[in-house]
Recover the amino acids of this structure.
């Protein structure tokens, strides 16, 4: 991700989530990758799903606020 290879990062995260879908922090990270790729709706969907399942997840809340969603 830091190197700008967003497609590769997304493949790795998706693979990890198929193995351990309960890792909601990975969905936060995938949302960041989506944003870097210009896929705002996908990022927001990931972060909202994290908050739905884990309402106390501060990272997802901050990430959503960063795109203007409270």
């Amino acid at each position: 991700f830091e190197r700008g290879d967003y497609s590769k990062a997304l493949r790795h995260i998706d693979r990890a989530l198929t193995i351990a879908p309960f890792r909601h922090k990975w969905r936060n990270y995938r949302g960041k990758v989506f944003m870097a790729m210009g896929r705002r709706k996908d990022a927001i969907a990931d972060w909202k799903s994290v908050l739905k399942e884990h309402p106390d997840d501060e990272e997802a809340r901050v990430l959503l606020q960063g795109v203007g969603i409270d």
